[in-house]
Write a structure and sequence with these properties.
The protein is an alpha/beta fold. It has a single domain, classed as Aldolase class I (TIM Barrel). Helix content is 32%, strand content 16%. It is built from eleven helices and 14 strands. The strands form four sheets. It has an eight-stranded parallel β-sheet. Strands 1-2 form a two-stranded antiparallel sheet. It has a two-stranded parallel sheet with strand order 6-9. Strand 3, helix 1 and strand 4 form a beta-alpha-beta unit. Helix 6 runs parallel beside helix 7. The longest helix is centred in the middle third of the chain and has 20 residues. The two termini are 32 Å apart. The structure holds flavin mononucleotide. The site of flavin mononucleotide has 20 residues, from strand 4 and helix 9.
């Protein structure tokens, strides 16, 4: 695992090692979307990770999907996030805020304005979502007009500015896992006949325009982008053209000199190698379902420059220390992933705490 512990650079940041915390929604924000009281502690506890990528934060009312997810578009949100970034920086860490517009993966019961969700096309994802009254079918969304697409791009731009004002070291654009940007990319979620639908170039257009707007606002060296080729989350099907679309998107994004590209990788090895060849800037590969002993395999094979991990970093505030010492890890408890205060959020013990409890 030597390579894992070697220094690296993301944008202008000098990072002590190559293990990152993957973005994870925890649904513990205040009613108005301000990061909750415990969020500063949660992220600061994990500041020994080389880079913290936060849970998805919505850039607008329309962008909210899940209950109690944080926003990054009001003065209150900025004040709340500032406490988080201050705590992380004081603990010696670095933090990117993930910008996540849920698009159709939303429910009127979960948003402040209680309106019909928006999407590239009026096609429901065919899945259910947790709301205040339990699990409900996600309704058919409303198709965004071209004017509204421009407003949404501008919301992303403002959210990126807000993240920097709040002290974040950068932002990650969430283009993965079935949310708005991914809905434009997906073959079965985008049936538009204008320049935002149809061909590969057209389905990648929204992703690229959002990225360019954010770069103009905060700089490419503070902008990352996440993709999830072939991931069927939120009812998305990439279709036969999927891999070619991702090659095209990677080539276009590579021209913009971003801080990094982050792949949630499900196993199309050929595509991963192609993207690696296209992408000379830092590449983050989050390989779902790998064994702990394989953590640094993509680094060793030159396929990745950093390794983001999700569940293990959620359950182990001292993951870096534990991996270095080869000690056992706490197991993540899915029952407390979302929305239940400090339990399963800030109370996972470090090794030291476990030992002092033993007396
Ligand atoms: C509780 C939970 C919440 C997640 N929320 C997000 C999110 O907000 N944004 C995102 O891009 N991925 C999200 N993911 C996916 C993770 O970033 C990661 O890709 C996934 O957990 C696989 O990595 P792992 O096996 O290391 O956990 C979430 C995963 C979990 C477990």
């Amino acid at each position: 695992m030597d390579k894992l512990w070697s220094k690296t650079k993301i944008g202008n940041l000098e990072l002590p090692h190559r293990l990152a915390m993957a973005p994870m929604t925890r649904s513990r924000a205040e009613e108005d979307g301000t990061p909750g009281e415990l969020s500063s502690l949660y992220y600061a506890q994990r500041a020994s990770m080389g880079l913290l990528i936060t849970e998805g934060a919505q850039p607008s009312d329309d962008g909210q999907g899940y209950l109690w997810s944080p926003g990054i578009y009001t003065d209150q949100h900025i004040k709340g996030w500032k406490k988080v970034t201050d705590a992380v920086h004081e603990a010696g860490g670095f933090m990117y805020i993930q910008l996540m517009h849920a698009g159709r993966m939303s429910h009127p019961d979960n948003t402040p304005h209680h309106r019909q969700p928006v999407a590239p096309s009026a096609i429901a994802p065919g899945v259910q979502m947790f709301t205040t009254t339990g699990m409900q079918d996600i309704p058919v969304p409303r198709e965004l007009s071209k004017e509204e697409i421009q407003t949404t791009i501008s919301d992303f731009r403002k959210a990126a500015a807000a993240a920097i004002e709040a002290g974040a070291d950068g932002v990650e654009i969430h283009g993965a896992n079935g949310y708005l940007i991914n809905q434009f990319i997906g073959e079965n979620s985008n049936t538009r006949t204008d320049e935002y639908g149809g061909s590969i170039e057209n389905r990648a257009r929204f992703a690229i325009e959002v990225t360019k707007a954010i770069i103009e606002e905060i700089g490419a060296e503070r902008t990352g982008f996440r993709i999830s080729p072939g991931t069927p989350l939120g009812g998305i099907q990439d279709g036969e053209q999927g891999p070619d679309l991702y090659r095209y998107l990677s080539r276009e994004l590579a021209k913009l000199n971003l801080a990094y590209l982050h792949i949630m990788h499900l196993g199309n090895e050929e595509l991963l190698k192609d993207i690696r060849a296209i992408w000379t800037n830092p590449l983050l590969v989050n390989r779902a379902g790998r064994a702990l002993e394989h953590l640094s395999i993509d680094l060793e094979h030159g396929l990745a420059d950093m390794v983001p991990v999700g569940a293990w970093s959620l359950a182990n505030p001292d993951l870096v220390e534990r991996l270095k010492a080869g000690t056992p890890l706490n197991e993540a408890d899915p029952a407390t992933f979302f929305g239940i205060g400090s339990k399963g959020y800030t109370d996972y013990p470090t090794l030291n705490e476990m030992e002092s409890q033993k007396g």
